[in-house]
Amino acid sequence: MRSPDSKAIIAYSDFISNRLTFKWTLKSGGYLKYINREAYNKVIRVSLKGKTHSQSYIFQWDLIKPYHQCVADKSKCSTPPVKTTDVTEKANVPISWDEWKDDMAGLHHYEYQVFELASDGSKLVQGTSMVAQDLNITTGDSVYRNESWTSWAVITLKTPGLYSTTLIVYDKALNYKATRCVILYDNQSKVDIMAGKRTIVEQSSKDTNYTWISVSDKNLKVSWTDRFINFRHKQNHWLGSVGSLSDVVGEYDDHYGKRSVDEIPNAHGVVRFEVKYEVYSPALSAQQAYTPTVDVLLQFGHINVPWNDGNRLDITVRAYDILEKFAEETIVVYKDVSPPRIENLWLSRGDNVNISVHSIEDFSKMTIEWEAFDFDSGLNQVEWRLFDNYTSNFILHGKAELHAQGMAQNLTICESKYEGEPRGSSCYCTMFHGCYHKHFHVKPKLAEIGKDAGLITGKDKGVHDSDYFIEIQVINNALIKTTAVKKITIDVSPPHEGTVHDGIRGDTEVDYQTDLHLDAHWEGFFDRESGVEFYRFIFADYCFTNEEFKNSNK
Question: Which residue from 226, 315, 319, 233 is spatially nearest to 279, judged by alpha carbons?
Fold first, then answer.
């Protein structure tokens, strides 16, 4: 008996889809020779029926990296390669990934690493020990690393900060593709209001501490430059741009969500401003709900306000950080574009008003009256001045600032407060600034030594047949000014005497009349300095005394 032959045959080899296939076919067999002693030692050969066995081996190579389906489609991808809550107040942050594929060897496993980001002065970079030494920034090595077959994980962050999470996807040939997401974790976020800065309406008057608007513009600019800040977000540059990684190509970097690798436009850590307003007149008459401004970097907004003189405008500005924490400030402004009014400026003697002539040289003996008022804003300042400019030189004889006669809480209080005034109470009320007594009654007095309020000593008397001027200046609470001037004349001499005639003008004078209807007329009376204001006459059957003449009201 002989041993069978063995034969190894390479059936074929080819290259299909980056594969090299080897196939072996093994066929067993042989033959058997034997001598038949009974047949004269005949040699007989018998072939053996063997078996055929085939074996193949595939050798595959893969130079193609894994990919994310959405990114590979080259369309506007809305599914990020790695998903997470990129802005959070919670320390446990979930991340997940799906739609990853590898058409050749197939996916094998995933790795992810978490690094804290810090500023190198121009951008946020991922820190390592070497980088920290080179860039002089305080970050350590990766704070978290894991390998997993799963498609999700939960990262636990210990301190608030900005973190870079890199996910590495491996195929079976150990080709890999890296992607990244940025996570802002902050459980202490707060927006503060900066002292020394303020929110104002640009059209408001600085002299009124930005409380009054004296222009007719309905489109108002509200500004709050440097008023709001998130200190930690600004100081740590947590909203700045993130530097690229060599292993993460652009389309696989984080361009999704609220916190991506791109810089977030912000003003001192604030990412959004909203403005609302309410107009009162005095009831609520117009309003605007919270409305975002056009550009957060500008730190101002425009509002279109339908309002009128005397109205109150409440404006509220809210400043939001990226975690939707906010601070707000409300300011109040008022509108008045019209000047105050001055009426009925004159001298008076008792019940006689509208007098322009002072019959005594002593200014302290005269009485000045006028009405001043502003129904929209009320009065802030009232001042009188007495002067002459006879020689073309301004000569001041006296002046004084007066109380504005206002700020009574209501009309009843105002009338009660001023009911003892020479002409009684004359009150009016504004919408928001209390009630005022509008009649002013002044008898000038000599100024006290060291004080600038009253008649000036040595100039407290006028000169006969001379003109002087009383000036009243009134300023309302919007600081709009009105001035009125009244010319007066000093006349201490009586009118020139004339002649009184019996009878009707044009008739021959006789010393008797024949009926009880008595007629008289006169002529020749005049006053060169001030003119004749009125005539007083009496019919009687006896001669009146001078005192009786003065007391007569005829």
Answer: 315
Answer yes or no: do 40 and 73 share one domain.
no
ω before 81 within 30° of 0 (cis)?
A: no
Among candidates 462, 456, 460, 414, which has minimal Cα distance to 435? 414
The reported pTM is: 0.79
Work out how many domains the chain is built from and give that number.
4
Residues 350 and 211 in one domain: no
CATH number where 345 lies: 2.60.40.1940
- Same domain? For 330 and 363 the reply is no
| Per-residue tens of pLDDT for the chain, all 554 residues | 444 444 444 444 444 456 778 888 888 888 888 888 777 778 888 888 888 888 888 777 788 899 998 888 876 777 899 999 999 999 999 999 988 998 888 888 888 888 999 999 899 998 753 222 222 222 333 444 455 556 888 898 989 999 999 999 998 888 999 999 999 999 999 999 999 999 999 999 999 999 999 999 999 999 999 999 999 999 999 999 999 999 999 999 999 999 999 999 999 999 999 999 999 999 999 999 999 999 999 999 999 999 999 999 999 999 999 999 999 999 999 999 999 999 999 998 877 787 777 777 788 888 999 999 999 999 999 999 999 887 667 888 999 999 999 989 999 999 999 999 999 999 999 999 999 999 999 999 887 776 778 888 888 887 777 788 999 999 999 999 999 999 888 776 677 777 788 778 877 777 777 777 777 888 777 776 666 777 777 777 778 787 777 777 66
Of 317, 335, 336, which is closest to residue 327 (Cα–Cα)?
317
Same domain, 134 and 40: no
- Please check whether residues 364 and 485 belong to one and the same domain: yes
Residue whose token pair is 């440097």: 226
Same domain, 362 and 442: yes
